[in-house]
Structure formats: structure tokens, C-alpha cells
Amino acid sequence: MLNFNDIMETITMIQEENLDIRTITMGISLLDCADSDIDRSCEKVYKKIYEKAKDLVKTGEAIERKYKIPIVNKRISVTPISMLVAVSGGDPVKYALTLDRVAKDVGVNFIGGFSALVQKGFSAGDRELIEAIPRALAATDFVCSSVNIGSTKAGINMDAVKIMGNVVREAAELTKERQCVGAAKLVVFCNAPEDNPFMAGAFHGVGEPDVVLNVGVSGPGVVRAALAKLPDDAPLNEVAELIKKTAFKITRMGQLVGAEASRMLGVPFGIIDLSLAPTPAVGDSVAHILEEIGLEQCGTHGTTAALAMLNDAVKKGGVMASSSVGGLSGAFIPVTEDAGMIAAARSGVLSIEKLEAMTAVCSVGLDMIVIPGETPAETISAIIADEAAIGMVNSKTTAVRVIPAIGLKEGEELDFGGLLGSGPIMKIRSQSSAKMINRGGRIPAPMQSLKN
After folding, report:
1. The predicted structure's pLDDT at residue 452
2. pLDDT at 16
3. Three-class SS of residue 186?
4. pLDDT (0 to 100) of residue 420
5. What is the DSSP letter of 444?
6. Are 348 and 269 members of one domain?
7. 84 lies in which domain range?
């Protein structure tokens, strides 16, 4: 029996508290599209993706109408393209253009997987793809790229870290007339998951099925609204319990949508990623949840502790609601995509150093942070190395998505518009890390890697 109060509560969550399904992402293996001729390989790639995903958007819209649940994004993730480049050779940008064309033709918002996994070294196709990333992102509208440069088991590939500093800068420079958006579509990972449905870091891992459907839910506004009803003197264990119960409700809705989409498309249901993913919309902010817990502003002392509690409670509630929780799952802190984070960064309360501390206890890492356009490539590489070290030592996923705002300086603003939002250009330390970065080599795996 459906409970009337539960129905009304869900309606309120959707209409007033920004509850939505952030994405349904179809993962598609392209291993059977490999060919020694790059043009034939691109033809196979287009044909397979179109065949599998042609009804994805239509299905998502049908579910929206049936259940009155907003599904904000419909996306595709594919096998890391470096694996196809290893077989075909040729210019990897051809693959990016093919991915962009099929994304437009099936109507999805983004397609991820122009990616390489180099945590332990470079294999055939990896360097070629990585060096092509700036051109690929400049030449396409819907393609997203990621590179995994480290893991708890392998350590950190510092040669790749050095290269990625240059790649991030070049991606920004080649798209400087479009708010440096190329860098906003590029993520550098440590411990990248194979089933992440969120962009820009989504790719379809080699351990995944041929085709699978993954769902990303979100609801920062719902969590904040629930906390606003608690007394100011409610102990933190009660706060955590309420967050857990709210995450349970959010995840159950994602489970419903994922199962229905899987049935309609005839595709296996993979995972629910229950990350709290904010948007610039008022009332849809992770920072505002932390402030509702009791901080005057996100970034002040106590922020890391509050975020750790939030992240843990969200995961506990989600695991209770679904046996298929995966992806990243937790709380995202992308600066330009979160109204509260934007305000905290503008006021100077939230620094990049505080964000780095926060990433030790939440999902992903330094995300959508705008830095001065003159920032040297070696400094970008050092930021990547610091974040990768947090992920490596703590056996968790971390990532870096920073945007050098070419031609702009600290204190100015970069405005992407839409879901990517806007934000102030944050202060970066001026002291050089070039000597360390130019050493290259590999940071060995920590003792946690020896668990077999």
C-alpha cells in the first residue's frame, strides 16, 4: 500500500527542494569496435553507440512523464578510447569527432570515455590519446575526457602527472574564447571507478558488461530542507540519522528509475551513484547543508568534520536503500557548480587548501576550481599530485578538475553559464614546484597496497 504522506513528501521534494535524477548514463563497451584501420574503427564505434543508445533519451523522457520525476541528464560512457588507438593508430581526434557526432544524433548531453588509464605506466595508444586531449576537447561539444594517473595499488605515475599539467593548460588555451571550457571537460583521477555515471569523469571500464545502465541521483536541497526542521541544539548523531533517512528516500527513487529504464531499454541495471551533486540553483548546494549543520560559512573551522559526517551518513542511507550502490557515491564539492561554495570562495573563507583537506573525507576531489590563467603547468601538475596522494593513501577516489582562466587573474570571475556555473579565480601559491615535478618517475604505492 502506498502511504499518502510519503507520496506528498516526494512531491514536495521534487517541486520545492530540487530533488531530481541527475543522470542516467548508458555504459557501452567498444572493445569489439577495434580495427587496424582507424576509419573502419570509427564507423563501428558510431554504429554500435547509435544502435544501443538511440532510445536512451526517449526512454528517460517517458519515465519523467510517467513518474513526474525530473531526469536532468541522459549520458553515455564508453571504453577508454586509448585502447582503440592502440589497435588502429592514427589521430585520436577522429574518435573524438565520431563520439561527438553520435552524441548529437542520439540527443544525449555528454559522452565520456576519451580516456586513458596510466597509473602504472603507458601502454600502446595512451600517450597518443593524452597528447590529443586538448585538440579533441576544442573540436567537440559533448565529449568529456579523463586520465587515471594513480591508484593505491600502483602508486602515482609522476611522468603522467607532469604531462597532464601541460594538457590541462593547453585545453584551456585552445578554448579560451569559450570560457576555457576544454579544461572543464577534463578530469585527472586517482583510483578512478569503472562505473561512474557522472561527467566529466565517466568511462566504461573493461570489467563492465557489454552494455549497462547506471543512475546518478542527487538531492542537496532535500537534505538541507530536512535539517532545517531540526532544533538548533539537536545533537550531531541525530543530524547524521536524519541525513541517513533522507538519503534512503532519495536512493529509493533512483532505484525505481534505474529499474524502469533498464526494463524499457532491455539493458542490465548497473549501479546507483548516490552522490549529492549540487547545481548553481538556489537551494541545491552542499555548502548550504554544511551551514545548516551549524557553520557560519562553508570553509570555516569545522567544515571538514561536518562534511565527513554528511558523506558517511549519505552512504549509509544509500546502502540501506539499494544493493547496487557504486560509482563515486558521497558528496561532491565542485566550486563553480555550488551556490554556497561560490559565495564562500568569493568571500575568501574557502581556500584551495581547505578544499584539499575536505577532499580527504568526501567524493572526488578538487572539482571545478578556477585558477589564474598564468598558473604554470608545473603548478597544475603539483596540485594533481597532492590530490592523487590523498586518494592513494586513503584508498579512495580523488580527482582534479581545475580551469586555468586564460587572460584573467586572481579575484576576477569566469562564467560558464548553465550547469557548470561561475566562480571567482582562486588564489594559488606562487612558490614553484617545478623541480619536484620535473623529476618524473613514480611515487611508490603505500603499504595499504599490500593487502592481498
Report:
1. 63
2. 47
3. strand
4. 79
5. P
6. yes
7. 25-190
Rounded CA gap, 355 and 64, in Å? 35
d(CA 420, CA 368): 8
**271 and 378: one domain?**
yes
In the block, cell 613514480 appears at 442
Give the C-alpha separation, 15 to 68, whole Å. Answer: 10
Q: Minimal CA–CA distance to 226: which of 383, 13, 47, 389?
A: 13
Into how many domains does the chain fold?
Answer: 2
Q: For residue 198, is it within any domain?
A: no
- Helices 158-174 and 126-139 cross at an angle (nearest 10°) of 20
Question: Would you state the pLDDT for residue 212?
Answer: 94
Q: Strands 413-415, 422-424: parallel, antiparallel or unpaired by DSSP?
A: antiparallel
pLDDT (0 to 100) of residue 414 = 87
Query: Is the separation of the CB atoms in 99 and 113 below 8 Å?
Result: yes
Where does a domain end: 157, 190, 223?
190
* Cβ neighbours of residue 257 closer than 8 Å, sequence gap 6 or more: 21, 24, 63, 67, 69, 71, 215
Which residue ranges in the chain fall short of pLDDT 50?
1-2, 4, 7, 16
Residue 203 lies in a domain: no
pLDDT at 249: 81
* 101 to 54, 94, 110: CA distances (angstroms): 13, 11, 11
- Confidence at residue 13, expressed as pLDDT on a 0 to 100 scale: 57
Same domain, 331 and 241: yes
CATH code, domain with 429: 3.20.70.20
| Contact assessment for residue 200 and residue 112, using Cβ atoms and an 8 Å cutoff | yes
Quick check: is 102 in a domain?
A: yes
Would you say the C-alpha torsion 283, 354, 370, 118 has a positive or negative sign? Answer: negative
Condensed to tens digits (0 to 9), the pLDDT of residues 121-168 reads: 999 999 999 999 999 999 999 999 999 999 999 999 999 999 999 999
For 441, the grid coordinates are: 618517475
* Neighbour tally for 302: CB within 10 Å: 14
Quick one: how far is CA 196 from the chain centroid?
Answer: 8
Instruction: Based on the fold, state whether residues 354 and 386 are members of the same structural domain.
Output: yes
Helix count (H) and strand count (E) of the chain? 16, 13
Q: What is the pLDDT of residue 2?
A: 45
Report pLDDT for 337: 87
Asked if residue 134 and residue 34 are part of one domain, the reply reads yes
CB of 21 closer than 8 Å to CB of 72:
yes
Residue type, 224: R
What single string gives the DSSP state of each residue in 360-423?
Answer: TSSSS-EEEEEEETT--HHHHHHHHHHHHHHHHHHTS-EEEEEEEETT--TT-EEE--GGG-EE
